[in-house]
Batch of 3 targets.
Target 1
Amino acid sequence: MDLASYVKSVVDPTERLKQIAEMLAIHYYLLFNGSDGIWHHMKTFYMEQSTFSFSEKVHVGQNDIFDSLSNIRKKLKGDRPREKIVHVVEKLHCRANGDTGVAIRVSGSFIVGNQFLVCGEGVKPEGMPSLDELSIDIPSKRVGQFREQFIMQPGNLMSCYYISKQDLYIIQS
């Protein structure tokens, strides 16, 4: 029996997809909303053939995508050192995409705050505060909403995925 067949026989594929989706969301938004010192690691999510669509423009490759995301991040961060606009992930859905890929849809709100949050629809990553623990009234703090879709493909290294296609939609309040 080869390794791939064995893994498929002992791992629940639905649970594995959910784990991959949660890992992407946590890592992606922690980097996006994190400090400038770790921001450069965002490039590792992309390959040269990756595409990122935002505001009717398509960006291709690590550098072009990173530049576009950096501009979006800078606008959201603004001039406030202690408070910035951060993501609140409210919904996270995933499904298989082809034989080995994963399609992930994320939606949520932008609020003025100082840390990224994950809440809603059964998503409770270990170590992340829940909305109930923080008692934040999202609708009153909402400055916008976002919808994002990621298509993840396996990379060259074992258990590593990269974003092959990403679409971002921002709705201002």
Note: Residues 3-172 form a domain with the Nuclear Transport Factor 2; Chain: A, fold (CATH 3.10.450.50).
Target 2
Amino acid sequence: MMIRILYAVIALWFSAGLVSAVDLYVGQSGAVTSNCQTEATPCKTVSYAVSQVPLSSGVGYIIHIIEPGNYAGEINIVQYRVINIVGDCSNWDAVVLQPTQNSSAIVIVQDFAIGVVSCVRLDSAGHTGNGALFSRQMAILDFFAVDFGDMPGGFHYSADHAALSCTGPYRISGSAEVHATGGNSSVVHANCAVDIPAPLAFTVFGQAGFQSLTLFSGATYSGAGAGSATSGMQCIVQDGSITVPRDGSGNVLLPGNAPCAAHGFGSIW
């Protein structure tokens, strides 16, 4: 029910007059005093560029990260903003988004906002308990062409009372406690082609919590880390539902060397 309401509200908002996108630019050579509106005068950080986007404007913004390098700073997209963050689509690892502290999310989209992240790498930069992408409280977050690096004690992507989707291929090059998780009436679409170049370690790869739905059934996994080469539980469900990819014999094809488990009213399809 919550997700149906979310999409209905956002559909009404778009029908009320969302106009074409505005371009903003971020680069290592930029400044936090710039208005970010030209490639010659970029902002220095993505979070500063986000702060230049007005609330509830009905205008979409594209933040282009035009110079390679590490960009530290939590990115918070809130309150009816529509923001697309784009790195280097010819080299996903050229632009790296990182946190500045433990137990924070690198990109968080919340409070009826819409965010898209593409063509970047996300890693913890040595911090612990972090999340790469987090959608919460009636928000939508989409991603593609992302490389998920190490997130020790944390997660790669998660939703809470929100929607989160991969919309194209992505890569997992680092371990985490959980790869993808949904909780509290969320929907997580994980039905994409995923490259895992080397064996990794997770406590659990996929997870669904209370009244949430996590969809893996259309996902495919390739690379040396696919299948049981990666360690950890394939999935766990507590009072929610997960759909999983299977082979012709019914075997679950999620990465991991321990089987899925369901608890409470959880179900695995």
Note: Confidence is low (pLDDT under 50) at residues 1-19.
Target 3
Amino acid sequence: MRKLTATLCLTIAVLLGSIGVSWSGDFQKGLTAYRTGDYATALRDWKPLAKQGHAKSQYNLGVMYRDGQGVTQDYKTAVEWFRLAAKQEFARAQFNLGGMYDNGQGVPQNYKTSVKWYRLAAKQGLAVAQFSLGQIYRQGKGVPQNHKTAVKWYRLAAEQGNARAQGNLGVHYALGKGVLNDYVRAYMWGNIAATNGNKRSVKLQNFAAKRMTPAQIVEAKKLARECIRKKYKGC
């Protein structure tokens, strides 16, 4: 989970959304500076906005303090900014705050609180948060282990194109955990995940293929193509 958080949560909020005109210019200036590595300017532009309650600026400051970008790395300050944005229902901030509790960064490690924030982000449709909840329910970390619930969250993330969730959903079909054992579906999701860059899913395909007939492999490949055409919905 730590690697997932470190890898996927570096994303800075780039969509301006429905922010006021007076905020838009300064936020964009900060974003342009951030993209060029001018963290001091980004910090100068975003901090006043964050203090005025601008959620995206609060989130971005959280990222900067967490990663030590233009400031001394400070997990506690990162948590403070993430929390302010999370309370405004900013999904990425909710997810990152969950990650801080998950990893014990700036706050005592607390899996239950981590799940709370992941769930709020996941309910807003954030795929990486949905995937993380799938992981948590699969592992039983902070919640009772529940493979059916893990499959539910993996599926939601998979339908958004999350390759890791697609691969893990395939694994559940291969092992018959949380769903009925189905090697055709396992191979299908493994194929889709591999197409989307999840190289580990090749092993899943090989595992399933050894237990399938040639006709079933043909069927699984056909289903994978159809699923991709449907943008992963209803697969």
Note: Residues 190 and 201 are 5 Å apart (CA to CA).
